[in-house]
Amino acid sequence: MPQPSILVVDDQPINVQLLKRKLEREGIQVTAAYNGLEALDLVRKTKPDLILLDVMMPDMDGIEVCQRLQADELTRSIPIIFITARTSKEGKIEGLNVGAVDYITKPIDLDETLARVQTQLRFVTINREMLDLQRRLVEARRAATIGAVTQGIAHNLNNLLGVVIGYLDLIKAYYDKPEQVRKNAQNVEDAVHRIVSIIKQLSSLVVKTRPPLSKGNLQRLLESSVTRFHSECRLTTPVTIENPLGELIFETNYEVFEEVLSKVLINAWESYGQQPNAPHPIAVRTQLLEKPGEPTMIEIRVEDSGRGIDEEIRDHIFEPFISSKHTVGVGMGLTVARHALRNLGGEATMSDRPEGGAVAVLTHPLEARKLRKHEA
């Protein structure tokens, strides 16, 4: 286990020496600074695990040093214990309000200081272990997703290629029967389109940057998404649109919005299973979600009265190639929809409807938020 490191900041050398000697006896590496500017420079160079910071110093006091460290993303997470001669409640609250984790009052009790330091170092260790565990969990999930995608690709493409080869054999066998050739050629074309669709969907999952945005009319986008759904599935299934927001204008990407909603509509239609003559009611409902301190979101609910969410896939419904259908070449629609919507700053969830069937809840920001650096 690496030796913990502490930066002691105090303009009184005697205080620094006392703390340094006490802490080093406990196996703690100590670096000293005697003013605020020196402290800021050493923090950036050494990245200590903990800072003991005197409040009363000339030129730049501990409060300002703490504020500067808190304003810097690289140093914000370093815990700071203030050392001060102030004993008033107001003085302690001021320090805690700017980001300190604890307070030690002068004259310094070395045993108490050591106990407080060791407590904070334990918190630092626990926090690092949690971050490491979180990182490994993310890596494990990424590896599992890659495995699922790879296995799903291989399975689906092998099945589809098998379909293509099978129909090509039929074309060869019935080459002298034009109608049979035409029918089998159409089946080959459909299978090839599914292969192209899988490749296109995989390409869209790789993209993490936000697509270009423009002003969109909610009612028109809902209607065009339904049209796209009908066109892609060659269906005339009626979709009820209940949009009290009307022709609300918001920032979005037309292509992505239509793709997301059309895929969710396809999922709703497929939830009814193999019932070609039965009604397949689908409803799209909208509302605004406004919470104090949070961006306003447009909520779009797509409701069906189908079979609901299968228990076997309930917790994995947005993962690649997870599907309750037994058709060759399916299982990425919801994965692509959620990924695309997240790139626009929104989210997609699924749940059962109390009346039967399922509801997909899509949220989309009313106004585009500014991207952080790591999202760009």
Describe this structure as you would to a colleague:
The structure is a single chain. The longest helix is centred in the middle third of the chain and has 64 residues, at 110-173. The protein is elongated, with a radius of gyration of 31 Å. It is an alpha/beta fold. The two termini are 36 Å apart. It is built from nine helices and twelve strands. The strands form three sheets. The chain has a five-stranded parallel β-sheet with strand order 2-1-3-4-5, sandwiched between helices. A five-stranded mixed β-sheet has the order 7-9-10-12-11, covered by helices on one side. It has a two-stranded antiparallel ribbon with strand order 6-8. The protein has two domains: 5-108, Response regulator (Rossmann fold, 3-Layer(aba) Sandwich), CATH 3.40.50; 211-375, 2-Layer Sandwich (Heat Shock Protein 90).
Low-confidence stretches: 321-330, 371-376
Strand order of the largest sheet: 2-1-3-4-5
Shape: elongated
Over the alpha carbons, how many angstroms does the gyration radius reach? 31 Å
Number of helices: 9
Query: What's the CATH H-level homologous superfamily of the largest domain?
Result: Histidine kinase-like ATPase, C-terminal domain
EC number: 2.7.13.3
Domain Histidine kinase: 152-368
Modified residues (4-aspartylphosphate): 54
GO molecular function: DNA binding; phosphorelay sensor kinase activity
